[in-house]
Amino acid sequence: MSACALVACAPTEAPAYATAVGQEPLSIGPAAQDTLGGWLPDDTTLSPFDVSNPIVGWLDPALLKAVQDASRAAEAVGVEMRINSGWRTRGFQQRLFDDGVRTYGSVDAARKLVASPQTSNHVTGKAVDIAPVEADRWLIANGRKFGLCQIYANEIWHFELAAVDGRCPPLKPNATG
Which residues pair with 129 in a beta bridge? Predict the structure, then answer.
């Protein structure tokens, strides 16, 4: 059995992305799938039902169902739930972590705010970041009914399928636990 049969392999040729109408496509190289998989432009969010986008569609099926069910319930009371981050490649998570090290000055400081690819549940599709703040607040108050819990005290937007018997575990202070 080939390694590609066991894990998802990046394409041998990078996709070309058009940068604007009428411009030539921009090729971003063979690592594009790895270093950009899970990236969304600033101020861009996705519907929890936009499964054609890997950020949503490659979430763990149980997490995706819980988020979709919660979204329907939130919408019924006038709260729109959006996803601003979900599934990410290991390479993209490493890029975020490396950016954190540069921004915060050390690996230890970055670990408090950005999980490594080895510890991030985004890489396995078992974590989702929700927007806007009203949806975060609604999900903090109601998410346990769907199995969804805020995990980190310093990230009101980060949710995982973690409720047991309708109860969420205690908040971790940050990504280091």
Answer: 85, 158
What phi, psi does 133 have (nearest 5°)?
A: -55, -35
The pTM of the full predicted model, rounded to 2 decimals, is: 0.80
What pLDDT, on a 0 to 100 scale, did the predictor assign at position 103?
Answer: 96
CATH number of the domain where residue 113 is located: 3.30.1380.10
pLDDT less than 50: residues of the chain: 1-21, 23, 25-33
Domain count, the chain: 1
pLDDT score at 1: 33
Phi, psi of 18 (to 5 degrees): -75, 135
* Residue at token pair 């101020």: 43
- Residue 114: inside a domain: yes
Q: How far, in Å, CA of 32 to CA of 21, rounded?
A: 21
The neighbouring-strand residues paired with 149 are 160
Asked if the structure places residue 7 within a domain, the reply is no
